[in-house]
Design brief:
single chain, 276 residues, mainly alpha, 10 helices, globular, binds fe (ii) ion
Length: 276
């Protein structure tokens, strides 16, 4: 059982965001913007999937997970709200949110599927966010030169993703535990998520006018594919999900815990500790 608290970030997101807020770097800005654009719809989906799954659990299991799920929902709802504010600035800059439109269309087309399928998709996506979050906490230079409030926003989100990395997975194991479906949905989510993220990054770069510049893609290589880059360094963690005996807790969450400990002045705890 993971104890999850809800934290309110003490940053002001009202003032506008610079077009290249991430250290003046076009690629790093476009990529993080694409991620943020996918969050509100994605996080609402995780909330709905886990809430519906909790209702479908037998009473004893429901009781076991109730507090943790409440904390999970609180954290994701906070992320959704704050990234919607962030995305409002991107919309004001004229960036079209294609990734959200595509996700909404997919959700509509799959609305009738079983609660276990949605939960497997949620656990799969949560694994992605957890390995990317873990990478970001270990490589904060990806946010080098970013405004302090935005750096705080991304690292706080990463720390909480790392903290609640087991919740959807554990509820899935309790409700279904079917390995084949877990893997099927992970493959599906991997392809869709990476394709959509790439598309939205390209759209953002096009809008920025830097899509066809060599320096843009040199920065992209460094961020994602170089030896210590996000995609390359996360590959092992991605592959771990296929193991029959995989559990998210096998991945170290110490950097997230350390960040929360060292930056306690930047947030207020609004929910009482649950699961205690
Ligand atoms: Fe989140
Ligand atoms: Fe999450």
């Amino acid at each position: 059982m993971t104890q999850l608290v809800v934290r309110r970030l003490l940053i002001d997101l009202q003032p506008a965001i610079a077009a290249r807020w991430n250290g003046g770097d076009a690629f790093r800005t476009a990529f993080f913007n694409a991620l943020s654009m996918s969050f509100p719809v994605g996080e609402q989906y995780f909330i709905d999937s886990v809430r519906n799954a909790l209702k479908a659990l037998p009473a004893a299991q429901r009781e076991r997970f109730a507090d943790e799920v409440q904390g999970f929902i609180g954290q994701e709802a906070t992320h959704r709200r704050i990234h919607a504010l962030f995305n409002g600035h991107l919309a004001a800059q004229g960036l079209p949110n294609d990734i959200e439109r595509r996700a909404l269309r997919r959700l509509q087309a799959n609305a009738q599927r079983d609660v276990r399928v949605h939960l497997a998709a949620t656990a799969a996506t949560e694994h992605f966010t957890a390995i990317f979050a873990s990478w970001l906490l270990r490589h904060p230079e990806a946010l080098e030169g970013a405004e302090p409030r935005l750096r705080t926003l991304w690292l706080w989100h990463a720390a909480e993703e790392s903290e609640h990395r087991s919740t959807a997975f554990d509820v899935y194991q309790a409700l279904s535990g079917d390995h084949a479906w877990r893997i099927r949905l992970f493959r599906y989510v991997s392809v869709i998520f990476l394709w959509d993220l790439t598309r939205q990054t390209v759209i953002n770069l096009w809008h920025d006018g830097s899509l066809l510049r060599f320096g843009t893609w040199r920065s992209g290589w460094r961020l994602l594919l170089a030896r210590d880059g996000m995609f390359r360094a996360s590959f092992g963690g991605w592959r771990d999900y296929f193991a029959r005996d995989f559990h998210p807790s096998q991945h170290d969450a110490a950097p997230g815990r350390a960040w929360l400990r060292e930056h306690a002045a930047q947030y207020a705890v609004v929910g009482t500790p649950v699961g205690a």
